Amino acid sequence: MNEFSLKVKNGKIVSIVVDGISLRLKEPIPLGHSSEVIETAYMFFRFFDLLSIAQEILKQKPQIITSVFAIPSVNIGKLSEILLSSILKSKKLEKKYVINVLAILLSKDYVSKEELLAKSSILNEAKKRNVNPSKFLAGVIAGLNRRSLRLGLGKIIEKTSDGRYHIPEHLRNILSKYYNTLKKHKQA
């Protein structure tokens, strides 16, 4: 049995919480429709496999956000521009490695960890700092992914099952438009 509760604001239902999962409504619904809202949520939780739905959303997040749950005014190109703008405003040292990694991944479809470490200068910098190069690279990638996830773009850099890195196709096409900007700021 599922536990349901309603969040009400100004006499209207704004969301329903089912077993701790908040389902926000597209628009507030009059409180008089509470039984319908609860019944709809109950049927949804009863008949749909939420685990597979969640896995599919995580797998396809960028496409789903832009096609199903998109706010009409949101534009992936604009979000990518904001992402790159925030990268270019980063600390000089951080920016160098982030831009190097992005430039390498934009120039090739798939790149091994070894190639990424060597070509991005992370291997040399890690040796100078006496840190694990793989952890250094993981930090650069995590920082980049954190920024893009905050913007709803999904992970900007993904790792394949065989250990190679790549930029997903839907982001590659958009980010490649900004490749010259990255190259120009690479030395900065």
Description:
A three-stranded antiparallel β-sheet has the order 1-2-3, with helices on one face. Strands 4-5 form a two-stranded antiparallel sheet. The protein has 188 residues and is α+β, with helices and mostly antiparallel strands. Mean pLDDT is 76; it is low at 64-74. The chain folds into two domains: 4-67, no CATH class; 76-185, Arc Repressor Mutant, subunit A. The chain is built from nine helices and five strands. Helices cover 57% and strands 14% of the residues.
Overview features:
188 residues, alpha+beta, Arc Repressor Mutant, subunit A, 2 domains, 3-stranded antiparallel beta sheet, two-stranded antiparallel sheet, 9 helices, elongated
Mean pLDDT: 76
The termini sit apart by 59 Å
Radius of gyration: 22 Å
Helical stretch count? 9
Helical fraction: 55-70%
| Annotated CATH architecture of the largest domain | Orthogonal Bundle
Major sheet: arrangement of strands: 1-2-3
SSE layout and pairing:
Layout: E1 4-9, E2 12-18, E3 21-30, H1 34-47, H2 50-67, H3 76-88, H4 92-107, H5 113-119, H6 122-129, H7 133-150, E4 158-159, E5 165-166, H8 169-175, H9 179-185
Antiparallel strand pairs: 1-2, 2-3, 4-5
Helix pairs in contact: 4-9, 6-7
How would you summarize this macromolecular structure in one to three sentences?
The protein is an alpha+beta fold and 188 residues long. The protein is built from 9 helices and 5 strands.
